[in-house]
Design goal:
By secondary structure, the chain is an alpha+beta fold. It is 46% helix and 14% strand. Strand 5 and strand 6 form a beta hairpin. The two termini are 37 Å apart.
Length: 332
């Protein structure tokens, strides 16, 4: 899922351009392009971690995690150029350490620091395609999760011989991934994937977190599996979208954000960007969506004051029957 991060103009020109050896590569520009991607990725991982950690007691599936995301030069459009631009000898390096995570607390996981071993395995030795190979990076993250699950921790060794031992904490079982192009946000049951062009990257953090919370809501409420069983009619999709909207402030509250940021997001983004969605009629209008979110706020405030958390597994009203179809309610 990691798109090429090298300059788009350069990549697009390779079909008709002279061989790479004959081209002058601006490595400073390549480093800057990668850094821009990493800054956006850091923002997504920080927010995703806060949401997944704060709602872990309520998610149907939680996993041990350390908040570390790696990068693999094999997943770039031109691995040799990316490696040289970052000054790396190996393929694997740190991408992000999510704020507040065990990886960030360790203080050892600086961006682009080379990785030599994940426990007893060197991921650099694993076979990979010549470029745009995202499978090896996914394998590395799967390996980390397996070590955390089976052994309660993992030792990560850097290229300079130093190592760090990390113990995990429980988070909701969703990974957060940034696409190097596009302006879409989707959830597939196990991941939240957001394109770097999505306008919310320029919003204040709590408002940006509302976007991420909407996609996380799809995963924790089991919407993909429900739609697989019941079909993706407009009525069904619209009901799941409404439910995801209404869960936004619950997820925000448990993560320490202002739950009203969900309303702000819908007003700030919706007024400019949801015309295409309205034509599809699979979502409510942005003003309706803002009202549905706002209607959840009094109950959340009461729960936070009384219990210190917003337990959506007990108090949230579902739009769908998780084990069946739509509720038999003529008012809906």
């Amino acid at each position: 899922m990691r798109a090429a991060l090298l300059l788009v103009a350069l990549l697009a020109g390779w079909v008709m351009a002279p061989p790479l050896a004959a081209q002058a590569i601006d490595y400073a520009a390549e480093r800057a392009a990668i850094a821009r991607f990493q800054e956006a990725d850091q923002r997504l991982q920080d927010v995703g971690w806060q949401l997944a950690r704060g709602n872990a007691p309520f998610c149907p599936r939680s996993v041990p995690a350390i908040g570390l995301q790696l990068q693999d030069m094999a997943s770039y459009g031109a691995p040799d150029i990316a490696r040289r631009a970052l000054g790396l000898a190996r393929d694997f390096a740190v991408e992000t350490a999510a704020r507040g995570s065990p990886a960030a607390a360790a203080g050892a996981f600086a961006r682009n620091r080379e990785i030599a071993r994940l426990e007893r395995f060197d991921p650099n030795d694993w076979p990979a395609g010549p470029r745009m190979d995202w499978q090896r990076l996914a394998r590395a993250h799967d390996h980390i999760e397996a070590m955390l699950t089976e052994h309660g921790g993992i030792t990560i060794t850097f290229a300079d011989g130093q190592s760090a031992r990390l113990a995990p904490v429980e988070v909701c079982g969703t990974r957060f991934e940034l696409m190097g192009e596009g302006d879409k946000a989707v959830a597939d049951g196990a991941r939240v994937v957001i394109g770097i062009g999505f306008p919310a990257f320029s919003y204040d953090e709590p408002v940006f977190a509302a976007l991420v919370a909407h996609e996380l809501a799809h995963n924790v409420l089991g919407h993909r599996a429900w739609l697989d069983r019941n079909g993706r009619s407009r009525r069904h999709v619209r009901r799941t979208e409404r439910e995801a909207d209404r869960l936004i402030p619950w997820l925000l509250a448990n993560a320490g954000y202002d739950p009203a940021a969900g309303v702000t997001f819908m007003r700030q983004w919706g007024a400019k960007h949801d015309a295409g969605i309205l034509r599809l009629r699979k979502h409510d209008g942005w003003d309706e969506r803002a009202r549905f979110i706002a209607a959840e706020l009094p109950q959340i405030a009461a729960l936070m004051a009384r219990e210190g958390r917003a337990d959506w597994t007990r108090h949230f009203r579902r739009e769908i029957d998780p084990e069946g179809g739509l509720p038999d309610d003529p008012r809906r």
